[in-house]
Amino acid sequence: MSVNVRNNNIDGALRILRTQSAPTLSVLRDKKEYKKPGVRRREEKKKNTINSRKNSKKNNYSNRTSKMASKKYAA
Length: 75
What we know:
The chain is mostly helical. The chain has helices at about 10-30, 35-75. The longest helix has about 40 residues, at about 35-75. The N and C termini lie far apart (about 55 Å).
């Protein structure tokens, strides 16, 4: 894994490196200890519900703003 440093911006390069290595670190963290299949399923379900709520909030916000903009220009 490698990251190019532009304009001596080490902080930005570190941020990019962390985001690239995040999936690898999470996989290692998950394999660190054994989890029963039921526990894994519960955690996966919990993670998916959190993500779906986040995505629905994003979608609702974008829908509201587009409706507001259309009303603004329609009048």
